[in-house]
Amino acid sequence: MTDALPRGFRFAGVAAGIKKTGAADFAAVLSDATCSAAGVFTRNTFPAAPVLYDRELLASNPHGLRGAVVNAGCANACTGEEGLADAAEMARLAEAAFGAPPRSIAVMSTGVIGPRLPMDRIAAGAQAAAAALSTGSAAAAAAAIMTTDTRPKTAVRAAGSARLWGMAKGAGMIHPNMATMLSVIVTDAAVGPDELQGLLRAAVDRSFNSISIDGDMSTNDTVLVLANGAAGAVDADVFAAALDDLCTDLAQQIVRDGEGATKFISVRVRSAASDDDARRAAKAVANSPLVKTAFYGGDANWGRILAAVGYSGAAVDSSRAHLWIAAGTEDAFDSAGRLQLVGHGRPLPYSEEAATAIFGGAEIAVTVDLGLGEGSTTVWTCDLSHAYVDINGHYRT
Amino acid sequence: MTDALPRGFRFAGVAAGIKKTGAADFAAVLSDATCSAAGVFTRNTFPAAPVLYDRELLASNPHGLRGAVVNAGCANACTGEEGLADAAEMARLAEAAFGAPPRSIAVMSTGVIGPRLPMDRIAAGAQAAAAALSTGSAAAAAAAIMTTDTRPKTAVRAAGSARLWGMAKGAGMIHPNMATMLSVIVTDAAVGPDELQGLLRAAVDRSFNSISIDGDMSTNDTVLVLANGAAGAVDADVFAAALDDLCTDLAQQIVRDGEGATKFISVRVRSAASDDDARRAAKAVANSPLVKTAFYGGDANWGRILAAVGYSGAAVDSSRAHLWIAAGTEDAFDSAGRLQLVGHGRPLPYSEEAATAIFGGAEIAVTVDLGLGEGSTTVWTCDLSHAYVDINGHYRT
C-alpha cells in the first residue's frame, strides 16, 4: 500500500490527550522537500483561527510549505486574537519538532467551537508526531483526524508517473460549502501553486461542494493540497482528472459516513434552465429534512422531492417536470430498472411495490428533469435518521 | 365561547372518509353575507391546484366570497390539469350544498402530494358539512383540518366592536414561506379587499413567515381572510393590530406543535446591518439541524448558533458579535437571568450549570447582537427530535 503513495512524504497519527476518550487526535503530514501549496477554505464569516492562519500562510509562502498538522477534539473557533496566536504557536511547535523552517507548516483543527486549544497537549502531540513520522503511517494520520466519523477516509490515485493521496474527515455539518470537512491531499507531481489552486478549486466544486449531510457549513472547513515535485511534471489534464477523481472519492466516503447515515442518495437534476438552477434544485432536494427522513423511512413520498425543487429558486414549468428513481448509485440513473414517477408534472401509474423496493434500498438514484434547458448537476447526500439526532443532541458530552 | 366569534359566520367539521383513520377531514366556514377576501399563498413553483384556483378566485371576485372548504388527507398537488378541475369541482360541490352562488367558495387541501382528490368523498363531505353548519362548530372545523398536528389551533381577538377568529394547521414543513400551513381567518369588520390584502401581507410577514420547523416550504400554503362587514367599520390601526396579534398567536401555536417538538425557541437578531440581514441570520439559526438537535439534547453547544449566523449571508464582523441565552419566551430576552456566552466574538466565562439549565428548559430565548447597525427581527422555532424523524420517515403509512 505504501508503494502506491506519493514519494517523499511521511505521516503520523498519535494520541495527544485532546480528545477526552484518549483516541488518536493529532495528525501530521511532512514532505522531505518544499512543496507548492493550494487551499480552499470555508466561506463562513466566523472562520476559525487555523483558517485565518492558513489563508495568510498560503498567500505569503505558496512555494515553501513542508507539511500540515491537524488536531481533533477542539476547533479553535470563536476564540478571537488568542485563538489566532494559538494557531500560530501550533504551527511553530510543529516546525520546531519536525526540523522544518518557520512558516512551512499549515494547521487545521476540528471539534467543539469555543474552547481554547490546550497548548500543552498540542506541544506534546507535535513531539510525539515527530517521533512517529514514517512513510507507512498514512492510515494512522487519517484515523487521528476523525471526530464523529466512524471510519477513516483515504484515497490514492495515479497520474502518469505521479501519485496522489488524500485523507478527509467529515460526518456532520457537510454542505455545499464544505462544512466541518477537512482534507489534506499530497502529491509528488510537480505543479506550480497557481495552477494547483485552479485545479483544486474546480475539483472541490465538483466533489466536496456537491455533497450535503445536513445543510450546515462549519467555521473550519479546509482542503489543502501539497505538491513536492518528486515525480516531476505530469500532463495537466491527466493530473486534473486524477485530482477530481480523488476528491470525488473522498467526498462520497464522507456522505456514506454522514452522521447516522443509513443510505447513499445521488440526486441528478438535468434539463434545468442553467447549471446554477440545476445546482439550486439538487441542493434543495439534498438538504430537505422532509426528503431525507422519507428516504430514511423507505417511504416513496416523491411529492416532497418536487416540493423541494419548487422552493429552490430554480426556474420551473410544472407541466414539464419529470421524476425517476432507481436503485443504485449514479450508474443507475438511466438504468433499465429505473421507475418514472412523474411525467410532465403529473403522477404516472407505477408499482408501489417497485417504488418501495427502491426507496427501501441502501443506494438510491434520483433524477429530476425540468424540461427547460441544458443545465445539469449531480449531488450526493444521505438520509436523516434517529442516529443523527442522537449524535448531535449530545455532541459535546 | 361562541359569543366572542365574529357575527354572521357558521362552521362545520365532519368526517368524509378521506383520511384512512376515519377522523374528521372536511371543514367549512360560511358567511351569511358576501365577504371581502384576501389571501397569501405559497411561493413554491409547484403550487397545488387549490392554490391556483384560489389565486384566480380572489383576483376575479374579491368582493363576493361567502366561505371556504378545506380537506385534510390529500393535498391535490402535482396533479396537473385534472387536479385543477378537481379543485374547481370541489368548490362547485360546496357552493351547491351550501346554497351559495357560483365562484363564492375558496378551497384548500392538505395531505399527501400526488394522489387525485377522492371526489365522491369530497361530495359527501360537502353535503355533511352543509348539514352540520352552525355558529357553535368553530372548534370542530379547526379539528378537521389537522394532519400531523396533535391539537387544533384557534385564536380570537376583538378590534373595537368587531371580532376576528382564525384557525390554522401546521406541524411539519413550516418555514419562512409558510410551508404546509393553512389558515382561515374570519372577521365581521367591514374592510375592503385591497386594504385587507395589505394588512394580511404585513401580518403574515411578522407571524407565519417568521416561524420555522424544518426549513421546507410546501406546495399548499395558504392564509385566507374573509370579512363580512356585519360589525361595520373599525379603526384601521386597531384592526391591523388585532390581525397581527391573531396571526402571531396562531403562528406560535404552530411552532409549539411542530412535528416532534419538545421546545419553543425564540431567536432575536439585533444590531444587524439591515432588517434583511437580521432575518437571514435568525432564519439560518432557526433552520439549522445542528442547532435544533443541540436544543433537543439540552446541550449548550452555542458555537453552532454563531456558525449558522456565519453562513447565513448576513454581514458579520466576528469581533463585534455578542450572544445571550435566557429561559423563557421573548419576554426573557433582556431579563436579569439571561446569560451572556459570547462578547465581541469571544467566549466569556460562564456557569456551565446555568447554561445547561437554560438549554434544558422547554422555552429558550436566544439573542444574537451583531454590533453593526439597526436591523432586528425575531423568529420562532422548535427543536429537532427523534419524534420528528419517526413522523416523517413514515408519513404516508
E-strand count of chain A: 15
The greatest interface here is: A-B, 71 and 70 residues
**What's the number of domains of chain A?**
2
Radius of gyration of chain A: 22 Å
The CATH topology of the largest domain in chain A is L-amino peptidase D-ALA esterase/amidase
Q: Mind explaining what this structure looks like?
A:
2 copies of one chain form a homodimer. The first copy, chain A, has 11 helices and 15 strands. Helix content of chain A is 34%, strand content 27%. In chain A, strand 3, helix 2 (80-98) and strand 4 (105-112) form a beta-alpha-beta unit. In chain A, strands 1, 2, 3, 4, 5, 6, 7 and 9 form an 8-stranded mixed sheet that branches. In chain A, strands 8-15-10-14-11-12-13 form a 7-stranded mixed sheet, with helices on both faces. The model of chain A is unreliable at 173-179 (pLDDT under 50). In chain A, helix 5 packs across helix 6 (236-256). Chain A has helices at 49-60, 80-98, 119-132, 138-144, 193-206, 236-256, 275-287, 289-297, 303-310, 352-359, 386-393, and strands at residues 9-14, 26-41, 65-74, 105-112, 153-159, 162-169, 182-187, 211-212, 222-227, 264-272, 322-327, 339-343, 346-347, 363-369, 375-382. Chain A folds into 2 domains: 2-256, L-amino peptidase D-ALA esterase/amidase (4-Layer Sandwich); 264-393, Roll (Ubiquitin-like (UB roll)). The two termini of chain A are 37 Å apart. The longest helix of chain A is centred in the middle third of the chain and has 21 residues, at 236-256. By secondary structure, chain A is α+β, with helices and mostly antiparallel strands. The radius of gyration of chain A is 22 Å and the shape is globular.
